[in-house]
């Protein structure tokens, strides 16, 4: 690992010049896009109730059934599961094959991502492109990616247990589903932020006018908490999905006949309502979504009249448009009883909005401290030269 490069205060995350910078950034963008696709595929797997079709898990993976006998054997395993007995009793073999292939594709795409990440990582290490700081970041992301597979199986395993209540349906734990989604969002944001940092290693330059730097600092104080709010709203959506809460109160803007539904604090202890009560979970998601819409609108209003760089202004406008679209998708999914295409689009929209906010926060990030120190040194040097020139002129004039 190289120690990294600092040129005129600009901190590089790769060594090897423009060729290395482009190669590493493109690789990280591919990995980021792959994770995005996996989140969307995971949503499709959940909405088609495919996630519990494979009743075992092997870290290295396994070949799918290749013969009629192997398919029957796999189907027999599924027929012994709680989901078959409580949800899919009477399912045909062809129907089982569909949900099996969905889950198999999701699992194998995760393992393929591990190869796509690990092999180039090793290659770039050997080439000396990876600095120590970047190597540490990527090492953490690699470990998290490996752990995500375990989290996924931990989630699936909860759905293979008997329902907690008599007459209940088998489904995964909403807590574990939310953990799985949150982990995916963290991995995705880490990859995307790192890709952006490699592709654009120079932070905002202190050579910009002071008014621009002050405007960026002001927006940064607004954008960071709003970005967290976007993530929190997406996480609340995982509890909506985990409790099948999207298939209840399918009216808008009211929930049935009420603005605040009855029984939102019916469970004991009270804290359970926020994670397990269908009415409360959906109400919370509506409130968070509305708050997100208003907050991003406030960010847009606050940015008016500020001297911001072009990319930041475009991203803020894009965030407003995407938020409006995302809210519309959510309302459509709710009113139409969450068809697969609407649910998948809504999940993809959440990650798209989160992407915009990550890119915006990156655009507004603080200048690297070394830039400021170098600029101050250069300014002092320039002032010294100016003083010496004035002194020389005065001495010559009075000689």
From TrEMBL:
Keywords: Heme biosynthesis, Iron, Membrane, Metal-binding, Oxidoreductase, Transmembrane, Transmembrane helix. It comes from Selaginella moellendorffii (Spikemoss). The chain crosses the membrane at residues 27-47, 108-126, 138-156, 181-201, 222-242, 283-303, 315-338, 344-364. Its cofactor is heme b. It catalyses: Fe(II)-heme o + 2 A + H2O = Fe(II)-heme a + 2 AH2. It comes from the Eukaryota. Coiled coil: none annotated. One of its GO terms (molecular function) is metal ion binding. It is found in: Membrane. GO terms for cellular component: mitochondrial inner membrane. It is a multi-pass membrane protein. One of its GO terms (biological process) is heme A biosynthetic process. This is Uncharacterized protein. Pathway: Porphyrin-containing compound metabolism; heme A biosynthesis; heme A from heme O: step 1/1. Pfam families: COX15-CtaA.
